[in-house]
Amino acid sequence: MTATGDGRPRTLTPKGQATRERIIGAAADLIHAQGLHNTNNEQIRAAAEVSGSQLTRHFPTKESLLGAVLEWQAGRILTDPRIPQGRLDSLAALRHWADAFVTATETVHGGCTFGSLAAEAIKAQPSQREAIARGFEQWRQLFLDGLTAMRDRGELRADADPVALSHLLTAAFQGGMLLDQASEATTPLRDALYSALAYVESFAPQR
Predict the structure, then answer these.
(1) Among the four residues 11, 56, 131, 207, which has the most C-beta atoms within 10 Å?
(2) How far apart are CA 44 and CA 59, in angstroms?
(3) Whole-angstrom distance, CA of residue 63 vs CA of residue 143
(4) Whole-structure pTM value
(5) What DSSP character marks residue 50?
(6) What is the C-alpha to C-alpha distance for residues 132 and 69, in angstroms, rounded to an integer?
(7) Beta-carbon neighbour count of residue 121 at 10 Å?
(8) Is 91 helix (H, G, I), strand (E, B) or coil?
(9) Burial class (CB in 10 A: 0-12, 13-18, 19+), 1
(10) In b/e form, how buried is each residue of 39-65, taking b as 16+ CB within 10 angstroms?
(11) How confident is the model over 100-140, as pLDDT tens digits?
């Protein structure tokens, strides 16, 4: 679905949907590579191989395109291949996930695709605050679901607070990614994630 000029919903044909997704993907790649302020419609149009009228038809304003890019980047969280079977519901899965990001050299240069965009957009486009909050909530919910399942199975003690722990893991990941970019090293992310995981593991019942 997309919207007409007067805001009414409009159903897209498969070809139209493919064009829309191509525009979003091209915009996301450009913005991640060169920043929101350095990306314009002409660059997006060329990268997506669409006409100006096609770009305007799907996204009449830059704000509407930014909202779609934020939603797209946030959605990629749930399909990231570094998340074992799409779930983080065991200590082993959390460790595997952390190891995959800590050893990935692209995190030093690109950071979190959603977090980097959110940091720019929240100042440049305050109207996107809700979209940004929803994106971070997807991250937090992924942790929350897994931690809750672990506590329910007895892999974490009853006094473990999945809500607080999900905030900790989200903050450790996002903050560590940002510090990695600034220092051009993976040490901050490694220390933040492994320290957060050590705290989570402290709630495992003593055998």
Answers:
(1) 131
(2) 12
(3) 30
(4) 0.78
(5) -
(6) 11
(7) 23
(8) helix
(9) exposed
(10) beeeebbebbebeeebbebbbeebeeb
(11) 888 876 655 566 778 888 888 888 888 888 888 988 898 89
